[in-house]
Design brief:
- The complex is a heterodimer.
- In chain A, a hairpin with a 3-residue loop joins strand 1 and strand 2.
- Chain A has one domain: Arc Repressor Mutant, subunit A (Orthogonal Bundle).
- Chain A has a two-stranded antiparallel ribbon with strand order 1-2.
- Helices cover about 55% and strands about 5% of the residues of chain A.
- By secondary structure, chain A is mainly alpha-helical.
- Chain A contains 5 helices and 2 strands, in the order αααββαα.
- In chain B, the strands form 3 sheets. Chain B has a 6-stranded mixed β-sheet, with helices on both faces. Chain B has a 4-stranded antiparallel β-sheet with strand order 2-1-4-5. In chain B, strands 12-13-11-14 form a 4-stranded antiparallel β-sheet.
- In chain B, strand 4 and strand 5 form a beta hairpin.
- Chain B folds into 2 domains: about 210 residues, Rossmann fold; about 80 residues, Alpha-Beta Plaits (2-Layer Sandwich).
- In chain B, helix 3 runs antiparallel to helix 4.
- By secondary structure, chain B is of the alpha/beta class.
- Classes of the chains: A mainly alpha, B alpha/beta.
């Protein structure tokens, strides 16, 4: 198991959400490859010293979101549906959507108008995702 | 069926109610953390549940059935104060357990004692430190084949390494379907190991739920209103807001569920600088046991 997850139990963010986020990031970055096996619920619970039902809940949601699939008796695997990249693209989109949503909310609550937020987004896109010349 | 089902449990001493009407349902395979200030009634609850002290009222069911002597074969209890015999050695305790409990595994007990650093089993219990006594009691309990574990402060006096070991033993048991109920003052441990918690205060339950759900629902939503005398009528009566504090333009809502919705409502109200602040279990615990500020005085002038 090459990927080491870490959770901060003292955080106000539910532990199962922390696990979901990290699995999605790992899948998006290819740290967890398509078809790769995840640790069992019990193993991850012991590795992180968190409740097994909490880990099971994270796995259920990940399965629901189409990131992993569970074969009964064999364990959980990163989903390999058609294109090898499908799961990683979907997972990356989920993580990014959450962050972008938060950023827009912050901008709005600081009193920025839509036009100003759009402008910020465009400058951010130009910086990190410039269009090919 | 729930592993443990408690209804209307009461224990009174004269006019004082140590346990004052407790209802709890604990599902099988759950790790359940019981929190509360000193004297809240946690230990008395454990003892009443096991019939070690006679409850004044209430009903306790183990997997649907009332407690009968045979049930103790499948239940382990580690009380707050060690019940080991001072004059007996650790080895004699192992032998004693082996004689008295069918499902006791002496090999497993020795492994656990080794793991927890209780090396020499020839030692008399009186020669062990407080932490080592706790470790011995815990090791003996975990070496049994059981359905239900009741642990009253199982990590008190243990060093951080052994505390972690005991938490992992609990997690390991739960992963195999054993139900674990434990009390602790160390909220960080409860936050890790417990799926569900209950907070007791003065013999009553003041909060109960799944730790992750409590964290997801309980947030502070803070915002800045357009003016000092801005009306927030209607907003103040939202049942999802446990407490509302207002100081001039600054509005803070202690939300108990759906914080995102409350944030949206506050946004629709015209509030700026909106923040949704996460609360740790410690924050949630302290909020549950601290005297509530009268809501009326805060909302005054709304």
């Amino acid at each position: 198991m090459p990927v080491i997850f870490t959770v901060d139990p003292r955080s106000g963010i539910p532990i199962y959400l922390q696990i979901i986020e990290q699995v999605k990031r790992s899948v998006a970055l290819g740290l967890l490859a398509s078809g790769e096996q995840l640790p069992t619920v019990k193993q991850l619970a012991l590795d992180l010293t968190v409740n097994p039902n909490t880990v099971a809940r994270a796995y259920r949601d990940l399965e629901h979101d189409g990131v992993i699939e569970t074969a009964s008796g064999r364990g959980s695997f990163v989903r390999a549906n058609g294109s090898a990249d499908a799961a990683s693209i979907a997972a990356g989109r989920d993580v990014a959507r959450g962050e972008i949503d938060g950023a827009v909310r912050t901008a709005k609550s600081l009193g920025l108008a839509r036009a100003a937020v759009t402008e910020l987004f465009e400058s951010s896109l130009d910086r990190w995702l410039p269009e090919a010349p | 069926m729930n592993a443990l089902s408690i209804t209307g449990l009461r224990k009174t001493y004269g006019s004082v109610a140590a346990v004052d009407g407790i209802d709890l349902e604990i599902p099988q395979g759950c790790v359940f953390g019981l929190l509360g200030p000193n004297g809240a009634g946690k230990s008395t609850t454990f003892k009443c549940v096991l019939g070690l002290i006679h409850a004044s009222a209430g009903r306790v069911l183990f997997a649907g059935a009332p407690l009968e002597p045979g049930a103790f074969e499948r239940i382990a209890y580690v009380p707050e104060r060690s019940v080991l015999y001072d004059w007996m050695s650790v080895r004699e305790h192992i032998e004693y357990m082996q004689t008295n409990f069918v499902g006791f595994d002496p090999k497993r007990a020795r492994e656990l004692l080794e793991q927890l650093g209780v090396g020499d089993e020839r030692k008399k219990v009186r020669a062990l430190s407080k932490g080592m006594r706790t470790a011995t009691a815990v090791a003996l309990a975990f070496a049994r084949r059981i359905d239900l574990l009741l642990l009253d402060e199982p990590t008190s006096g243990l060093d951080p390494v052994n505390q972690r070991t005991v938490l992992n033993l609990m997690i390991n048991e739960a992963a195999q379907g054993t139900t674990v109920v434990f009390s602790s003052h160390q909220i960080g441990q409860v936050e890790r190991a417990a799926e569900r918690i209950a907070v007791m205060q003065r013999g009553r339950l003041v909060l109960e739920g799944v730790v992750d759900d409590l964290k997801a629902g309980r947030k502070i939503v803070a915002g800045i209103l357009p003016t000092d005398d801005f009306s927030i009528n209607g907003f103040a009566n939202d049942a999802r807001i446990g407490r509302l504090e207002r100081n001039g333009r600054i509005l803070r809502a202690y939300v108990t569920e759906q914080p995102e919705d409350i944030a949206e409502n506050m946004n629709a109200l015209g509030a700026q600088g909106l923040r949704v602040v996460d609360l740790s279990l410690e924050d949630i615990f302290l909020d549950a046991v601290s005297p509530k500020v009268a809501t009326a005085s805060i909302v005054e002038g709304v």
